[in-house]
């Protein structure tokens, strides 16, 4: 369960996030949709605590991300945009490193890594050094790494960008699996169709503000557009006009 | 603590598998010093051996005006050749380098000698050229010897003992021990050790900061339920280990290399046995923390791997500065120098190699102040690692 309440964030003169609020409940997939530079990544970075909001609050399972960042991070599996691996370590070692850092008992690490390797179907290349991995392989390992401590909340920043059809498909299956486990999944994307196909709730962000927060059908109704892409554009325009 | 240890072991393993890091830590750093050193030593041995024994040639204008002088000079292992045509040609020849030294004997030389007035000769040499200056000194000393001999003969002819010409007899006594003499040359080796030490951790310092950011592996790392302090301390600890290994290797490779250098020919016997190797390691060890912290600090300010490399190569040279200044001013070890990292290690090391007594207070101050500065820089590193801008 992730709640965001009126967060603001500026970088110098750039006011990247100007009062974003939404809630992402457990057992649902919430999509953060918006054009490039809308403030999606900044919002997510505040949630996995690498940035502090200038104003407003956000919490993970009721734990404040600013005052208790460590505890909040314990409950998050985060996949930042373009997350990199350690090229001299094997995929398994990359995952085990995170498992150890997350405080999993040393006796249980192998077992835990094995199960996550199986879940993400990366057996084939799990024991190879990650140097030279394809983008799809890297994303899978990075995702496995983020999920190794079995977090209740999963935050994915543009996880599908640059992936081919097959990889996108298996990513989608994984996200649905996480939802079925009762987890809270929050991911960002700038691709309308992807979000529409997967998400229970869609939060459209433009210019650092929430333009609309509803289900896919709700968005169609409220904007009066049958086509989701038109609805997306219409929603963004309402923010731009302000 | 577990986090720190996990980060530490991961960084050691990760970098141990990186060929570039490994080569710079285990090969480049430790071998660069001894090799350069062997080269310089051999060169200086060659030069000093050749200078005294070899016959030098001296171009003389107007040999016919002073046949006795010429014979005397020749007896000093100097072979005489015909010089340029005249005075102007002599100046030109020395300037152009065709002759290192030219001796000009004017026509009036014989007559002045007969009359007992000071007979004039001229020596042309370029004093800025060290090789030529050495030859000029030899020529001058031969001429001086001849002059002394003539003076003695003249005094004897007047019934005066030549001893009156020597109211003072200056006798040079060289008190430097063979170990002490080697210190001049071995003084530069302390920098090689510091260089090797820094070199050993350089790529680690880059990889764990700028490299990690450029690779995109920093952000997910920071999103883990660990404190940043532990991450950065683990990284600095790994850098320290690589630096320590590199330092140890370079000390031993020096120890081995010295066995193959004909230092006795230069009248040197450096005190550099296994015991000194270990003692030197202990004296230099506090510099490891400082080096690791400085390199991590500088690298964490840079935007990319390339930029970090550029800045860190400046850091590599920085420790030479205090050593250089003190060497140029030829200052003796003083208490206040012991507060300056790299300089204090250098001065203590030089005394060790000279086999001179080491002031334990000096060592204590050197160790304490270097460790304190290292700890302070580590603290600053950890502070900076907490800032948001770290992600760039």
What is this structure, in a nutshell?
The complex is a heterodimer of chains A (242) and B (392). By secondary structure, chain A is an alpha/beta fold.
Helix amount of chain B, in percent? 55-70%
Structural class assignment of chain B: mainly alpha
Given the C-alpha coordinates, what overall shape of chain A results? globular
Note the beta-strand portion of chain A.
25-35%
Strand content of chain B: under 5%
How many runs of DSSP E, i.e. beta strands of chain B? 4
State the low-pLDDT regions of chain A, or none: none
Identify the most extensive interface between protein chains: A-B, 34 and 24 residues
Give the ordered list of helices and strands of chain B. Answer: HHEHEHEHEHHHHHHHHHH
CATH architecture identity of the largest domain in chain A: 3-Layer(aba) Sandwich
The portion of residues assigned to helices of chain A is: 25-40%
CATH fourth-tier homologous superfamily of the largest domain in chain A: P-loop containing nucleotide triphosphate hydrolases
What's the CATH first level of the largest domain in chain A? Alpha Beta
Spans of chain B of 5+ residues with little confidence (pLDDT < 50)? none
What does this structure look like?
The complex is a heterodimer of chains A (242) and B (392). With 242 residues, chain A is an alpha/beta fold. Helix content of chain A is 39%, strand content 25%. Chain A has two domains: 2-75 and 151-241, 3-Layer(aba) Sandwich (Rossmann fold), CATH 3.40.50; 83-150, no CATH class. A four-stranded mixed beta sheet of chain B has the order 2-1-3-4, sandwiched between helices. With 392 residues, chain B is mostly helical. Chain B is built from 15 helices and four strands. Chain B has helices at residues 2-16, 19-53, 67-75, 87-96, 109-115, 130-157, 178-186, 189-215, 218-222, 228-259, 274-301, 305-317, 320-328, 343-353, 360-385; strands at residues 56-61, 78-82, 101-104, 122-125. Chain B has two domains: 2-45 and 179-391, no CATH class; 55-171, 3-Layer(aba) Sandwich (abc type-2 transporter like fold), CATH 3.40.1710.
């Amino acid at each position: 369960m992730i709640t965001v309440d009126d967060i603001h964030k500026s970088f110098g003169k750039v006011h990247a996030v100007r009062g974003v609020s939404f809630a992402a409940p457990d057992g649902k997939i919430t999509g953060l949709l918006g054009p490039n530079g809308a403030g999606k990544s900044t919002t997510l970075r505040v949630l996995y605590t690498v940035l502090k909001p200038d104003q407003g609050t956000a919490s993970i399972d009721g734990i404040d991300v600013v005052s208790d960042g460590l505890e909040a991070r314990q409950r998050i599996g985060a996949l930042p945009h373009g997350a990199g691996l350690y090229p001299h370590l094997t995929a398994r070692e990359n995952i085990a490193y995170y498992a150890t850092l997350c405080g999993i008992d040393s006796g249980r690490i192998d077992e835990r890594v094995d199960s996550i390797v199986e879940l993400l179907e990366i057996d084939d290349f799990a024991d190879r050094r990650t140097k030279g991995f394809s983008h799809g392989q890297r994303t899978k390992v990075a995702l496995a790494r983020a999920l190794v401590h079995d977090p209740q909340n999963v935050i994915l920043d543009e996880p599908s960008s640059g992936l081919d059809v097959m990889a996108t498909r298996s990513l989608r299956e994984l996200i649905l699996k996480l939802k079925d486990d009762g987890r809270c999944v929050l991911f960002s994307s700038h691709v309308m169709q992807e979000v529409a196909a997967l998400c229970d709730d869609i939060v459209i962000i433009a210019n650092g503000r929430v333009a609309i927060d509803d289900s896919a059908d709700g968005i169609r109704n409220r904007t009066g557009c049958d086509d989701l892409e038109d609805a997306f554009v219409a929603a963004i325009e309402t923010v731009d006009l302000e | 603590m577990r986090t720190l240890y996990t980060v530490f072991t991961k960084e050691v393993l990760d970098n141990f598998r990186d060929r570039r890091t490994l080569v710079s830590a285990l090969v480049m750093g430790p071998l660069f010093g001894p090799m350069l050193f062997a080269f310089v030593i051999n060169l200086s041995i060659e030069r000093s051996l050749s200078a005294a024994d070899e016959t030098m040639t001296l171009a003389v204008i107007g040999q016919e005006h002073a046949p006795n002088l010429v014979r005397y000079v020749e007896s000093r292992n100097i072979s005489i050749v015909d010089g340029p045509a005249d005075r102007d040609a002599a100046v030109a020849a020395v300037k152009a380098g065709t002759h290192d030294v030219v001796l000009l004997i004017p026509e009036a030389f014989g007559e002045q000698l007969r009359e007992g007035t000071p007979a004039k000769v001229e020596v042309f040499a370029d004093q800025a050229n060290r090789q030529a200056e050495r030859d000029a000194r030899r020529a001058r000393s031969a001429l001086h010897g001849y002059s002394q001999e003539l003076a003695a003969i003249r005094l004897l002819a007047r019934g005066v003992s030549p001893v009156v010409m020597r109211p003072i007899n200056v006798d040079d006594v060289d008190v430097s021990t063979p170990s002490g003499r080697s210190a001049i040359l071995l003084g530069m080796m302390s920098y090689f050790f510091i260089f090797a030490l820094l070199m050993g951790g350089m790529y680690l310092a880059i990889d764990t900061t700028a490299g990690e950011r450029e690779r995109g592996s920093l952000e997910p790392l920071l999103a883990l339920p660990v404190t940043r302090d532990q991450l950065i301390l683990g990284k600095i600890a790994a850098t320290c280990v690589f630096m320590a290994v590199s330092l140890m290797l370079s000390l031993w490779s020096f120890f081995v290399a010295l066995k193959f250098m004909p230092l006795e020919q230069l009248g040197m016997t450096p005190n550099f046995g296994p015991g000194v190797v270990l003692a030197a390691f202990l004296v230099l060890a506090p510099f490891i923390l400082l080096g690791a912290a400085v390199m991590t600090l500088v690298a964490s300010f840079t935007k990319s791997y390339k930029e970090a490399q550029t800045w860190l190569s400046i850091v590599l040279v920085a420790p030479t500065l205090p050593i250089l200044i003190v060497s140029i001013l030829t200052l003796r070890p003083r208490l206040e120098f012991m507060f300056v990292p790299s300089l204090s290690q250098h001065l203590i090391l030089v005394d060790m190699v000279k086999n001179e007594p080491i002031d334990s207070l000096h060592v204590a101050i050197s160790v304490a102040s270097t460790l304190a500065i290292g700890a302070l820089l580590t603290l600053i590193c950890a502070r900076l690692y907490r800032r948001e801008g770290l992600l760039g």
